[in-house]
Amino acid sequence: MSAISLIEAQWRAPAETVLALGEEPWTAAFLSSGEGWSYVMAEPDATLVLAQDDMADPFAALAELAGPRLPSEPGGPPFQGGVAGLAAYELGDRVERLGLKRLDGWPDLACGRYPAVLAFDHCAGRVVAVGRGATEAQAQSRADRALGWLARPAGGARPPAVELQAEDPAAYERAVAEVVERIHAGEIFQANIARRWRGRMAQAGPADLLWALAAGSPAPFASYLRLPDRAVVSNSPERFISVELEGERLVAETQPIKGTARRGRCAAEDRALAEALGASEKDRAENLMIVDLMRNDLARVCEAGGVKAPELFRVATFANVHHLVSTVTGRLATGRTAVDLLRAAFPPGSITGAPKVQAMKVIAQLEAPRGPFFGSMFQLGFDGRFDSSVLIRTAGLVRDGDGWTVEARAGAGIVADSDPRAERLETEAKISAVAAALGAGAASGGRLDVLGQG
């Protein structure tokens, strides 16, 4: 697919384009929060789905699907076609054999190869249709096909209108208390323990939920994947790992999030909460543990001595919470690729804990299988570039007759001095944007308490 065709078109909101594509299986989207680029793609020319009982090496299969590195068009969008899809949390069981159970038939890996993509340039207010092919004519045809998606009428978004039911808050607090005990016993230093909420969506579809999230609470790593009988809709604020080109070399980056504070009810309270988060020794220590873990993961495939943390403890503000974000970088060793990095770092350290393998064992004892939750949505370009999210603030949907069952999860990083009630309230703050988009009401036990978030 060395031939490339780029065609510019007038602006259209990417979430509206997803609505226009309707419920077509294998539609995928990666939405920024209004800066940089967003992408919508459909009609892959090949797909890869690996269930638990498929013994193929998923990373080798992913590399084979992507094929050898190909050049990109200078000045074009960063992603000019390639492989995109879902790496479920239990894909980590292919890295460390822990005997993890699976969630309701969710595959460990589900991705497609997309030679046609719509790229949305938020800064310039333009859309670029990208086509890749073996010949210029084939590339042109595929770019034209992508333009056809842009021209489809969207119709109106339907309100999801889901009443979410939460797991027992007392049970979650007991799980947190048990993790604290295990930390004091020296078993682990930290573990991310999650709660889940469930409901049913009868009148709307997954694309309608994506639209509601994009309109009400845009996030920098939002994503969407429609599979034949299920879908992932994510409003994630967190990058997992990325790989960029530096000349002919590949440079890796990860931006773990650890440390959370709710938004204030007024500007003064909001500033005070953000400043307190930035100064919090507990949250900084929690963040630093994951920074060290990610440094170790990157070091497995990066040049010796070259992994660095150029930014620590930046306070980032989102619609519903403040977060502490750090950055870790490294240059991939000669011969290493983004797929090697994915194998080395999966699953994300920010939603497992430290040490990672033991934290995963603890999580498996205290939670139901995670499936898409806390895995990653990723895009692997034909040129070797890579970007991915951590699937937090995420809904997983499964077809249920004429409707959809909906599940959402939110977790908290538990450390030695964690307070079970405070950690439970943190999960409610984190899930509030997804709950609002679903049309859910407010309570911590049966319905969700959004804590007065803005």
* Overall tally of structural domains: 1
Instruction: Summarize the main sheet.
Output: 12 strands, antiparallel
The proportion of strand residues reads 25-35%
CATH architecture: 4-Layer Sandwich
CATH superfamily heading: Anthranilate synthase
CATH topology value: Anthranilate synthase
Low-confidence stretches: 441-454
Give the N-to-C terminal Cα separation.
Answer: 46 Å
Overall mean pLDDT stands at: 92
Name the structural class: alpha+beta
Work out the helix count. 10
- Strand count: 22
Q: So what's the overall shape?
A: globular
Helix content: 25-40%
**For the CA atoms, what is the radius of gyration?**
21 Å
Descriptive report:
The protein is α+β, with helices and mostly antiparallel strands and 454 residues long. It has a single domain (3-438), classed as Anthranilate synthase, CATH 3.60.120. The protein is built from ten helices and 22 strands. The chain has helices at residues 14-21, 58-66, 136-151, 169-184, 206-216, 267-279, 281-299, 338-345, 356-366, 420-438; strands spanning 3-10, 28-31, 37-41, 46-50, 82-87, 109-114, 116-121, 126-133, 165-166, 190-201, 221-226, 230-236, 241-246, 249-254, 257-262, 308-317, 321-331, 353-354, 376-381, 386-388, 394-400, 403-414. Strands 1, 2, 3, 7, 8, 9, 10, 11, 12, 18, 21 and 22 form a twelve-stranded antiparallel sheet that branches. It has a five-stranded antiparallel sheet with strand order 4-6-5-19-20, with helices on one face. A hairpin with a 3-residue loop joins strand 11 (221-226) and strand 12. Helix 1 (14-21) runs antiparallel to helix 5 (206-216) and helix 5 crosses helix 10. It starts with a strand and ends in a 16-residue tail after the last helix. Mean pLDDT is 92; it is low at 441-454.
